[in-house]
């Protein structure tokens, strides 16, 4: 009788006595986990074919480090979360989870991790009650019933990794890491944390790339570099899905040519046959990971982009490329869609090539007839005001000059430099044929707190003057009217402006500068160090993004700032002229030409001050119009 009772008790409790069924990480994810949010929230996870090896490798003791370099919207977070939950369920330990910033960490924890734990009973049973004060649960940690912890940390504070014994660590969006942080490189600190666990220790490193040389670039270069290969349905040629294998037409929209998504088709790089969406999805489902550096045996690295996603079509991808092309924002497309670094903005310039951009055919006293209007951008310094003069049409920007107005103390009202600048702004600017060119606006920097009131008072002297202030935000519009302490001014997105300037300079020194939709041309008499100042800054990671910062050893960047101000001034001025600003400017220019002709017919033809003669003919631009 007792034997039967024992058998019955054992049978009823066998699920609690027996160890959990051994599952691969991918099998565990599809068996137990659900999607935490979105339109499919609560539904079982179904991994893409390329995700299985990316997840299953966390159980391979050969690899202590796994690197994921991916585009956005490729379900990277699903892999990281699945790895975390698999470890919690099968082999509990202290686990560290780190994100680029505190805000992103909170969103990840609350929106993905906490929600999944609440919906999945096998995970919820592992967690202590957050309302029970006997346990240490808060925004920075979760205590498991077996005494282990999940620690949540910000990559922006590497010291969070110190003093913690961690068997596994997950680092996401490491491209935001400052590799030279005085507190230490968080990736190296993470690797040190798992040293005591030998082969059982594991670090997962993930990020969408930004620029060459960022953290994910370094980690992937030092991995076995796995790429996902597929077979052509026509010739069976094994290859990667790359952007250059998409063919599409360009359509004329106004004065610009833009990619036409409706014509986009993926082609095999070998037989050149077209590949349909259905064929692409089948190819991906049968693809395989190939190591490009098999000699690396302790670090696995995976690269994948949006072309493999069943949730995106080739036409969707070209639609995003069209938008990036229209907004001159290749950076975002390369990073988030192709999962590639964008190095163009980081390239070094040969100063000789930049100096060769000086054009002897024009300057402030010798303004080309192609110029329709002028804007001015001014920077305030302690003892001087610096101003860049920009003439422009819809295809060309003419940096006509960079003037410096010296004073005694430009932070106080009444300094002579302001009188000099005002007189210059009110100058009679004329083209080589004598046509008058109007100054639309002049932006004056008021960002120096000690000079703010001085600049605002100065700008009240003429309606053409506008006070401005550079903003550190990368998300505001290029120019945005703001009010502070009763003073109205324009906030400028200096990051966007400096990125635009760098793109213009890159086009100017390229092999085919005339192909650019907008050309920038530089006067011969700009200051000697003008181009050194123009490239005085470089992109560096900062927090959850990147920003322009002075290069080491560089002290001056006023020329760069002034060009940014005057470009914003031009964009603002054009925005006030309606839907066809250049039509309005050409109409105005035609009227000025008639006045010039009439004046010439009724007055002595010899001017009091002869116009400066052109010393060199200038090539006509054949580039497409910048404005659509």
Brief description of this entry?
This protein is α/β, with parallel strands linked by helices.
Tally the structural domains.
2
- Which residue ranges are poorly predicted, with pLDDT under 50 across at least 5 consecutive positions? 603-628
What's the Cα radius of gyration?
31 Å
Please outline the major beta sheet.
Answer: 10 strands, mixed
Helix content: 25-40%
CATH domain class name of the largest domain: Alpha Beta
Protein name: Terminase
Biased composition (Low complexity): 597-610
Domain Phage terminase large subunit GpA ATPase: 47-289
Region (Disordered): 597-628
Task: Describe this structure as you would to a colleague.
There is one protein chain. The chain has 628 residues and is an alpha/beta fold. The chain has 2 domains: 20-222, 3-Layer(aba) Sandwich (Rossmann fold); 352-598, 2-Layer Sandwich (Nucleotidyltransferase, domain 5). 31% of the residues lie in helices and 22% in strands. It is built from 18 helices and 26 strands. The strands form 5 sheets. Strands 1, 2, 3, 4, 5, 6, 7, 8, 14 and 15 form a 10-stranded mixed beta sheet that branches. It has a 9-stranded mixed beta sheet with strand order 16-24-19-18-17-20-21-23-22, with helices on both faces. The longest helix has 22 residues, at 581-602. It starts with a helix and ends in a 26-residue tail after the last helix. Residues 597-610 have a biased composition (Low complexity). Residues 299-570 form the Terminase large subunit GpA endonuclease domain. Residues 611-628 have a biased composition (Polar residues). Residues 47-289 form the Phage terminase large subunit GpA ATPase domain. It comes from Pectobacterium carotovorum subsp. carotovorum.
């Amino acid at each position: 009788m007792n034997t039967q009772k024992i058998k019955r008790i054992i049978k009823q409790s066998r699920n609690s006595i027996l160890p959990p069924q051994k599952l691969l990480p991918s099998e565990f994810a599809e068996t137990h986990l659900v999607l935490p949010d979105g339109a499919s929230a609560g539904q079982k996870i179904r991994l893409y074919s390329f995700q299985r090896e990316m997840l299953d490798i966390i159980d391979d003791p050969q690899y202590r480090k796994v690197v994921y370099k991916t585009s956005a919207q490729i379900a990277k977070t699903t892999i990281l979360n699945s790895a975390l939950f698999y470890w919690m369920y099968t082999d509990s330990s202290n686990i560290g989870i780190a994100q680029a910033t505190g805000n992103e960490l909170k969103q990840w924890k609350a929106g993905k991790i906490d929600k999944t734990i609440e919906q999945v009973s096998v995970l919820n049973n592992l967690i202590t009650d957050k309302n029970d004060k006997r346990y240490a649960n808060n925004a920075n940690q979760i205590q498991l019933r077996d005494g282990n912890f999940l620690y949540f940390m910000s990559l922006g504070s590497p010291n969070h990794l110190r003093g913690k014994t961690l068997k596994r660590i997950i680092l996401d969006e490491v491209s935001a890491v400052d590799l030279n942080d005085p507190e230490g490189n968080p990736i190296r600190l993470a690797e040190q944390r798992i040293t005591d666990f030998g082969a059982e220790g594991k670090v997962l490193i993930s990020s969408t790339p930004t620029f060459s040389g960022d953290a994910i670039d370094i980690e992937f270069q030092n991995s076995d570099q796995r790429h996902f290969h597929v077979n052509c349905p026509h010739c069976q040629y094994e290859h990667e899905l790359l952007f250059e294998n998409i063919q599409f037409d360009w359509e004329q929209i106004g004065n610009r040519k833009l990619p036409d998504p409706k014509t986009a088709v993926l082609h095999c790089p070998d037989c050149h046959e077209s590949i349909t969406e259905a064929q692409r999805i089948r190819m991906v489902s049968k693809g395989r990971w190939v190591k490009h550096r098999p000699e690396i045996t302790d670090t696995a690295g995976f690269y994948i982009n949006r072309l493999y996603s069943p949730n995106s079509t080739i036409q969707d991808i070209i639609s995003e490329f069209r938008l990036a092309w229209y907004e001159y924002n290749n950076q975002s497309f390369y990073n988030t869609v192709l999962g590639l670094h964008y190095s163009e903005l980081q390239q070094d310039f040969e100063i000789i090539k930049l100096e060769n951009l000086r054009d002897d055919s024009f300057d402030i006293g010798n303004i080309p007839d192609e110029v329709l209007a002028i804007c001015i951008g001014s920077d305030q310094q302690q003892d001087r005001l610096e101003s860049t003069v920009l003439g422009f049409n819809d295809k060309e920007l003419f940096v006509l000059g960079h003037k410096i107005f010296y004073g005694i103390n430009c932070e106080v009202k009444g300094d002579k430099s302001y009188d000099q600048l005002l007189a210059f702004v009110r100058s009679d600017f004329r083209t080589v044929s004598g046509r008058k060119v109007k100054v639309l606006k002049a932006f004056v920097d008021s960002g120096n707190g000690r000079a703010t009131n001085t600049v605002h008072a100065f700008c009240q002297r003429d309606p053409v003057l506008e006070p401005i202030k550079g903003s550190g935000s990368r998300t505001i519009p290029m120019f945005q009217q703001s009010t502070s302490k009763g003073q109205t001014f324009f906030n400028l997105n200096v990051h966007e402006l400096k990125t635009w300037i760098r793109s213009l300079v890159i086009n100017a020194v390229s092999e085919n500068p005339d192909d650019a939709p907008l050309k920038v041309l530089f006067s011969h008499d700009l200051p000697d160090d003008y181009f050194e100042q123009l490239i005085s800054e470089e992109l560096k990671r900062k927090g959850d993004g990147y920003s322009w910062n002075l290069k080491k050893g560089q002290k001056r960047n006023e020329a760069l700032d002034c060009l940014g101000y005057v470009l914003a001034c031009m964009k603002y001025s054009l925005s006030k002229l309606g839907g066809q600003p250049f039509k309005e400017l050409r109409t105005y220019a035609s009227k000025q030409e008639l006045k010039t002709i009439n004046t010439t017919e009724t007055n002595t033809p010899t001017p009091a001050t002869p116009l400066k003669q052109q010393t060199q003919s200038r090539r006509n631009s054949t580039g497409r119009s910048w404005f659509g």
